[in-house]
Amino acid sequence: MPELPEVEALAAFLTEHLVGREVERVLPLAVSVLKTYDPPLTDLEGRTVLQVRRHGKFLDVVTDGPHLVFHLARAGWLRWRDPLPDTPPRPGKGPLALRVRLAGPGGDGFDLTEAGTQKRLAVYCVRDVAEVPGIARLGPDPLAPEFTLEVFAGLLRDERRQLKGVLRDQSVIAGIGNAYSDEILHAARMSPFKLAASLTEEETAALYTALGATLRDALERSRGTAAGELKAEKKSGLRVHGRTGQPCPVCGDTIREVSYRDSSLQYCPTCQTGGKPLADRRLSRLLK
């Protein structure tokens, strides 16, 4: 799933390729993808792109008419095509969910695709981004100047949930998902199961520093990377997430995993939990 650094890089990529261009055609190809009906997607056709913005993990293509907003979810991706195929795509065939063709002789544009059977990619055509429920609920952006240590401490102060869940909650902090929450907690040397409200001032400051450093480092690695290469760039920079069974790059201990129904987390026992393995909920159920 693309998270804040990759979505920010996609926003920069699209800014370079879209701003000042006219939208010729917007073609939805998956029944599940479009979440709004007023204004219709056809209202985007003939409009000029003014800017591309990021809101958490949402991308916002701002035109001189409606906004085209999309969330790539777990298995969605953006593929730039130069040129786009001349043959019209067939709805419901393959992973293609939406196609945007730009006006001009180049015939270029982009496709939104989604792999797998769980169709969560979401596209909105709205007059105001506040009409998108997911954006309206977003917490503060962790890379914004106003996201200070004091603001962060205030968000955690009354949280009785585990740190892993708090960091992933988009209504608390916008843009952090499963992968970077693992990376942040590893950098901060904290257990994902630690309760947020239990942190001392020193621990809160350490987590705040790790959060900012991890995201900025990932953003710097992603900067200037073409859209098609961002997934590989993200994976290459991860130190614990997705690396179950491999040695921790800090201490050499074996990276372990806790599995859930539709996701998993990775951590280093030596760096984060005092050498103690965390209970794997899925394995515990199997043993009962």
From TrEMBL:
EC number(s) per entry: 3.2.2.23, 4.2.99.18
UniProtKB keywords: DNA damage, DNA repair, DNA-binding, Glycosidase, Hydrolase, Lyase, Metal-binding, Multifunctional enzyme, Zinc, Zinc-finger
SMART domains: Fapy_DNA_glyco, H2TH
GO biological process, one term: base-excision repair
Matching InterPro entries: FPG_cat (IPR012319), FPG_N (IPR035937), H2TH_FPG (IPR015886), Ribosomal_uS13-like_H2TH (IPR010979), Znf_DNA_glyclase/AP_lyase (IPR000214), Znf_FPG/IleRS (IPR010663)
UniProt cofactor(s): Zn(2+)
Pfam family, any one: Fapy_DNA_glyco
Catalytic reaction annotation: Hydrolysis of DNA containing ring-opened 7-methylguanine residues, releasing 2,6-diamino-4-hydroxy-5-(N-methyl)formamidopyrimidine
Domain of life: Bacteria
Annotated ranges, domain FPG-type: 239-273
Location of the Formamidopyrimidine-DNA glycosylase catalytic domain: 2-93
Family statement drawn from the similarity comment of this UniProt entry: Belongs to the FPG family.
Protein name (Swiss-Prot/TrEMBL): Formamidopyrimidine-DNA glycosylase
Naturally occurring in which organism (per UniProt): Streptomyces netropsis (Streptoverticillium netropsis)
Lineage: Bacteria, Bacillati, Actinomycetota, Actinomycetes, Kitasatosporales
